[in-house]
UniProtKB/TrEMBL annotation:
This is Band 7 domain-containing protein. It comes from the Eukaryota. Belongs to the band 7/mec-2 family. The lineage of its organism: Eukaryota, Metazoa, Ecdysozoa, Arthropoda, Crustacea. The chain crosses the membrane at residues 35-60.
Length: 284
């Protein structure tokens, strides 16, 4: 009777993460039937040489690893590759795992923010397999599981944020989401490298309200700036009038300068200059 293998984790230097191993070597505990099948497979390979080499020898690329199972048990030594490796037909199976950085889009998620505003947010996640053995043995489909977890994590994190935080603090949200995903997928042999918020779509009514608010704010700032300009201009005119009042000759010069400006701009206008003293009599 076969005894169940005890699965535990250890640090695998070749992958930099936890790896699976049995409580003993993979060849022990397979029972008499397992040894008999192994011997038969070896005999079959020797009898059918060299044709058996085309079946027994496999190759994985530099960015791939092969996780081998013998009679349902993981082989000791972790994943194989890159390069050529040997498998026994009939009793050994292997799974290729791609170690390159992958990316997937999180579909738009309808989220109710903390201030009761419904927004649609989508994101993109960059991840890679940090431990090939764990990604095969600990989870059925590591990529699909990471995708579903990313959707749930996005909704959970955005549900605790206000609308202005989502619109203006995307980097903090991305960092929080990346840390949460990386912690959750560590036991799956997945390393989440980066999370980015792509787009935040608001309801049409809310967009119109925000546009009206922004327009009103711009108009208010324009009125304040115009009022400040008029105040400064009136202050400058007051100071100029005080200077002219102290010097009658300055008023005469200003009068002549005005006549020169009018004659230069409108040449068809006939100007009859009057002495400033004559106008002073009427002003009194």
């Amino acid at each position: 009777m076969l005894e169940p293998a005890i699965i535990k984790t250890k640090v695998a230097p070749q992958f930099g993460g936890p790896a699976l191993e049995g409580s003993e070597d993979s060849d022990t505990g397979i029972g008499v039937c397992g040894w008999i099948l192994t011997i038969i497979c070896w005999l079959l390979v020797l009898v059918t040489m060299p044709f058996s080499f085309f079946i027994c020898f496999k190759v994985v690329q530099e960015y791939e690893r092969a996780v081998i199972f013998r009679l349902g048990r993981l082989l000791s030594g972790g994943a194989k590759g890159p390069g050529i490796f040997f498998i026994l037909p009939c009793i050994e199976t292997y799974t290729k795992v791609d170690l390159r950085t992958g990316v997937f889009d999180i579909p738009p998620q309808e989220v109710l923010t903390k201030d009761s505003v419904t927004v649609s947010v989508d994101a993109v996640v960059y991840f890679r397999v940090s431990n090939a053995t764990v990604s095969v043995a600990n989870v059925e489909n590591a990529h699909h599981s990471t995708r579903l977890l990313a959707q749930t994590t996005l909704r959970n994190i955005l549900g605790t944020k206000d609308l202005h935080e989502i619109l203006g603090d995307r980097e903090t949200i991305s960092g929080s989401m990346q840390a949460a995903l990386d912690e959750a997928t560590e036991s799956w042999g997945i390393k989440v490298e980066r999370v980015e918020i792509k787009d935040v779509r608001l309801p049409v009514q809310l967009q119109r309200a925000m546009a009206a608010e922004a327009e009103a704010s711009r108009e208010a700032r324009a009125k304040v700036i115009a009022a400040e300009g008029e105040f400064k201009a009136s202050t400058a005119l007051k100071e100029a009038s005080m200077v002219i009042a102290q010097s009658p000759a300055a008023l005469q010069l200003r009068y002549l300068q005005t006549l020169s400006t009018i004659s230069a701009e409108k040449n068809s206008t006939i100007i009859f200059p009057l002495p400033i003293d004559f106008l002073t009599q009427f002003m009194r």
